[in-house]
Amino acid sequence: MDPKRSRSRVPDSLVHLIVPAETHQEARPLALLLDFDGTLVEIGDTPEAVAISPAMADTLAEASRTLSGRIAVVSGRSLEQLHHLLPPALAGGVIAASHGQELSVDGAVQAPRRTRLFVDLAFEAALHFEDFPGIVIEEKSFGLGVHYRLMPQLRDRAEQWAMAQAASHGLIVQQGDMVFELRPGGSDKGDAVRAIMALDRFAGSVPVFIGDDLTDIPAFEATRALGGQAISVGSRTADHSDERLDSVEGVRRRIAALIA
């Protein structure tokens, strides 16, 4: 890894503010906001083929204790998916799911009313791609992912179908890591960051957001606007962040260092 890319580019004055607890009068406590796929877990061949490692689960539990609960997951996955995938230290805390459409705080959920739109689109997608088993359809509470990781040569076909459905149903197409996602407009991960930082437990803290994908760029921007630090995983979003990590294990070590 290039040592120049591994160092934070934020001013020293900001780095000094990022502390795990109130160690002196001027210090502001840290708040940790984390993407899921590609950040807490390696990207899987299919959405279900992921799991948080025991070491990561232990580090996240310690972070939750050290930060007095000022830790949150911000993901494009549905809340239902995340409840199944996250360790107890995070599953019962603060989760912004579906790119901010769903917000769960200690089990209390705020979300718009669900419709059958994405159920119906999942059915249509299954029919459309039935002769292409390498296309994986991921139905979400407020979205639909068309994954082509298993057959990269089908990228254009996946994109064309997603764009046609977006035009028909007034949706937007969000490009991710070998996936095209259909979702409603009106919210993104930047909105999720702002909503989380408005919660009482996060008041007065310095946000640090860690993410790897294009959908995390609005979260980086919101975090930096709030005086915090944006950390990218890999190269895709490095130009939008203050610091770059190279792996999920690098994320775990960085979290451990932040709360030490």
TrEMBL record:
Q: Which pathway features in its UniProt record?
A: Glycan biosynthesis; trehalose biosynthesis
Its recorded reaction(s) are:
alpha,alpha-trehalose 6-phosphate + H2O = alpha,alpha-trehalose + phosphate
Per the record, the domain of life is Bacteria
The cofactors required by this protein are:
Mg(2+)
Under Enzyme Commission nomenclature, its number is: 3.1.3.12
The processes (GO biological process) annotated in the record are: trehalose biosynthetic process
Key words, A-Z: Hydrolase, Magnesium, Metal-binding
- UniProt xrefs under Pfam families: Trehalose_PPase
InterPro entries documented for this protein: HAD-like_sf, HAD-SF_hydro_IIB, HAD_sf, OTSB-like, Trehalose_PPase
Q: What would you give as a GO molecular function for this chain, any one?
A: trehalose-phosphatase activity
Which Gene3D superfamilies does this entry report, sorted A to Z? HAD superfamily/HAD-like, Trehalose-6-phosphate phosphatase related protein, domain 2
Q: What does this protein do?
A: Removes the phosphate from trehalose 6-phosphate to produce free trehalose.
Family, according to the entry, reads as follows: Belongs to the trehalose phosphatase family.
Q: What is the name attached to this protein's record? A: Trehalose 6-phosphate phosphatase
